Amino acid sequence: MAAASGSMRLQRCIVSPAGRHSASLIFLHGSGDSGQGLRTWIKQVLNQDLTFQHIKVIYPTAPPRPYTPLKGGISNVWFDRFKISNDCPEHLESIDVTCQVLTDLINDEVKSGIRKNRILIGGFSMGGCMAMHLAFRNHQDVAGVFALSSFLNTASAVYQALQQSDGLLPELFQCHGTADELVLHAWGEETNSTLTSLGATLKGGEAGALSISMKKIQAD
């Protein structure tokens, strides 16, 4: 079962700068979380909101849907998984539906006057995987993409898209904690290695290092 697309508008938690923003950061939460939950967690880690002088930070919330790893239980997830592993097929139907919905969010920013090359997309865990699908398969002209404690499946559609790409790709910042017992560090390493071999420009670091190539979208 896939969430309906079209007129769906994601719930959004937004941190706006004091002045008019000239860039946007879309930050996607992990499975079972929410935009507000992610914002609260980051605030606890940093002891303050993630804020920038001219960058609007948007934390959308994934719509509730049945999630196979929870035996079909309803959860706020960006897409379904057959299992939490890198050696199984991707649930492309649900991934592609969410790409359409998140594209509406990107288009809203563009309509408000923000250029695509001033929009950064990223996320934590499942949110990072979703961000890589969104940027590398659908929006290769954004400023960049970041993935925190995330991975792509071995036969990911992202890799297929990059094999067919002949243009410039958004820069990727990827980091992963070595003690992660749910999303294995080795899965992140494999993702990093494969993306590099396919021409992606990568920057890496330890989980929590939220520098995220912000220099690319700092105020002019």
From TrEMBL:
Signal peptide: none annotated. One of its GO terms (cellular component) is cytosol. InterPro entries: AB_hydrolase_fold, LYPA1-2/EST-like, PLipase/COase/thioEstase. The keyword Ligase does not apply. Residues 13-200 form the Phospholipase/carboxylesterase/thioesterase domain. It catalyses: S-hexadecanoyl-L-cysteinyl-[protein] + H2O = L-cysteinyl-[protein] + hexadecanoate + H(+). Transmembrane segments: none annotated. One of its GO terms (molecular function) is palmitoyl-(protein) hydrolase activity. Its EC number is 3.1.2.22. It is an enzyme of class 3 (hydrolase). Keywords: Acetylation, Cytoplasm, Hydrolase. It is found in: Cytoplasm, Cytosol. It holds the Pfam family Abhydrolase_2. Palmitoyl thioesterase that catalyzes depalmitoylation of CGAS and KCNMA1. Acts as a regulator of innate immunity by mediating depalmitoylation of CGAS, thereby preventing CGAS homodimerization and cyclic GMP-AMP synthase activity. Does not exhibit phospholipase nor triacylglycerol lipase activity, able to hydrolyze only short chain substrates due to its shallow active site. Belongs to the AB hydrolase superfamily. AB hydrolase 2 family. This is Lysophospholipase-like protein 1. The lineage of its organism: Eukaryota, Metazoa, Chordata, Craniata, Vertebrata. The gene is LYPLAL1.
